[in-house]
């Protein structure tokens, strides 16, 4: 299974025969689990990103000024106030400020949390008794998904999805999902279901944490991954 391979092992294969989606999947997990040096990961990223962009056919991605709200049936009122704090020390992390290459140890909270009505924490909407869909805000190429989280796992994102908006050079991250519907390598149009809101993740599974979607967007600028405050697009 490709998910178990690490990037170093994959790069032994001649690069031309490798699928950029598989390379990203291995890269993202190596960064997450700190199996790769930060400087090495940072040096590899531009090449990997360039190959991912080449996969995107222009016809599949339409420019849209407005984003679809990423949690179906919810609004801006359900977004945690002051959620976007990329520079803080966060949770149990010893690191101050967000850096993608810190992986699962990362500091900061360069994201908003979007809360659903789930008092009994069963991941079902208290009004509809149904799971709550997470939607693609814009047209996205799904880069990688992870749905193997289990109780006791230290992975903070739980079950998650990484996806690419090639028009604006932004990478989207949806975390703590119950189920993942999106498939790596496929295109999700704005409004398509990516998964459902859940309680997966080292802290998100705790009863102290109300059920929410952790939704982060990173902006790729001059080969750097920068945190991006997308609040204005949610309105
Ligand atoms: Zn969060």
Describe this structure in words.
The protein is of the alpha+beta class and 235 residues long. The chain has two domains: 2-55, no CATH class; 64-234, Glucose Permease (Domain IIA) (Distorted Sandwich). The chain is 17% helix and 25% strand. It has four helices and ten strands. Strands 1, 2, 3, 4, 5, 6, 7, 8, 9 and 10 form a ten-stranded antiparallel sheet that branches. A hairpin with a 4-residue loop joins strand 5 and strand 6 (170-180). Helix 2 packs antiparallel against helix 3. The relative contact order is 0.16. The mean pLDDT is 92. The site of zinc ion (ZN) has 4 residues, from strand 2.
Bound molecules: zinc ion
Q: List low-confidence stretches.
A: none
Give the CA-CA distance, first to last residue. 41 Å
Shape: globular
What do we call the CATH homologous superfamily of the largest domain?
Glucose Permease (Domain IIA)
Number of domains: 2
Instruction: Tally the beta strands.
Output: 10
The CATH class of the largest domain is: Mainly Beta
Strand proportion, as a percent range, falls in 15-25%
User: From the structure provided, what is the oligomeric state, counting identical versus distinct chains?
Assistant: single chain
Indicate the mean pLDDT.
92
CATH topology of the largest domain: Glucose Permease (Domain IIA)
Q: What Rg is obtained from the alpha carbons, in whole angstroms?
A: 17 Å
Helix run count: 4
Q: Residue share in helices?
A: 10-25%
Biggest sheet architecture: 10 strands, antiparallel
């Amino acid at each position: 299974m490709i998910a178990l391979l690490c990037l170093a092992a994959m790069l032994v294969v001649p690069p031309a025969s490798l699928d950029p989606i598989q390379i990203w999947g291995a890269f993202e997990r190596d960064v997450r689990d700190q199996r790769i040096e930060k400087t090495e990961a940072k040096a590899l990223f531009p090449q990997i990103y360039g190959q991912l962009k080449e996969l995107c056919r222009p016809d599949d991605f339409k420019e849209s000024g407005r984003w679809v709200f990423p949690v179906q049936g919810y609004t801006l009122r359900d977004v945690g106030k002051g959620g976007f704090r990329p520079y803080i020390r966060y949770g149990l992390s010893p690191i101050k400020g967000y850096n993608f290459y810190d992986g699962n140890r990362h500091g900061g909270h360069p994201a908003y949390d979007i809360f659903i009505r789930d008092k009994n924490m069963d991941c079902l909407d208290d009004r509809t008794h149904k799971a709550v869909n997470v939607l693609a805000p814009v047209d996205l190429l799904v880069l990688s998904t992870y749905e193997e989280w289990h109780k006791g796992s230290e992975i903070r994102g739980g079950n998650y999805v990484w996806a690419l908006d090639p028009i604006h050079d932004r990478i989207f991250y949806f975390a703590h999902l119950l189920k993942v519907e999106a498939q790596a390598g496929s295109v999700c149009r704005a409004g398509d279901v990516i998964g459902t809101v859940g309680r997966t993740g080292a802290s998100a599974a705790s009863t102290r944490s109300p059920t929410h979607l952790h939704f982060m967007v990173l902006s790729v600028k001059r080969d750097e991954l920068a945190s991006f405050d997308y609040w204005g697009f949610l309105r």
